[in-house]
Structure prediction request, 323 residues.
Amino acid sequence: MQVRKALITAAGRGARLYPAASTVQKAMLPLIDRDGVAKPVIQIIAEEALASGIEEICIICAPGDEAQYLAQFGLLRQNLLAAPHSGPWAEAQADRIGDLLARLHFAVQEEPLGYGHAVYCGRHFVGAEPFMLLLGDHLYVPRENGKHGAELAIGLATQAKCAVSTVQSTREHLIGNYGTLAGSHVPDLAGVYQIERIIEKPSVSLAELELQTPGLRAGHYLCLLGMHVLTPEILEILEESIERGGAEEGEYQLTPALHELAQRQKCLALEVDGRWCDIGQRYGLLRTQIALGLTGNDQAEVLGAIADLLAEARLGRAMERVS
Prediction:
């Protein structure tokens, strides 16, 4: 099983990041990557995919955004090459952007009809091949010296010849925010589970009844991270749902399709040990930047800056109490 293609869903405008995301796609907001280079979020995600063996990437975008992405990446590359004293470093970064642009495709989600519908919009790009699915506003930051989540997922999918979804063990009071699954541990494979059932944002009471996974700590459940390696059958399932009008509150979700896929064929869940960051949350960009900084080349500088800020804040509060 060879995984050559990746979809990155990035059609949402980022209502929680208004007003910034009303003028700039949230996936193009900048972060300093672990290598110390400032990049758009979607470039960090795409580079992880390429480093994991992906050859072609398709961004699922809103109408009109394709031209914006191409223009902004083109301008980034041009500015790197034109900057005074750019030198080998800037040329290398420009080459990376050029390589990304050469591998980049686009598919437009004409209407905001949900995550599952966005994935379905990439069907012509995917064809009959297995593919990686990534979210354009989520970053997986591995522990220091850890492997990328994309690399781990592709490795397991290639080995097991089946679909793989990355998961993390999550405390029960948080599972209402995630697709949550039940499974059974696969012998001789640490942190790997055969998926038996998936429910989108379950209540704790429902999870207690139907989503218990043996071997997890009490009060913990396996929750989807939004990083998958999927077989093309998922697109057939989504098509069936769309044709019968199976939208929930006007949207076609991916989680029910993932559950159906697990009923039709073997699907595995891979528990990964890292930090999953959602830039769309309040202070999500800040949390993501800190996570990248604490595992990157500038770790000592970032730790020092955080310590200084905390000390200043604590001193300020102490002075307020004295006065």
Remarks:
- The first strand starts at residue 5 and ends at 9.
- The chain has one domain: 5-322.
- The chain is about 40% helix and 25% strand.
- Residues 58 and 105 are 4 Å apart (CA to CA).
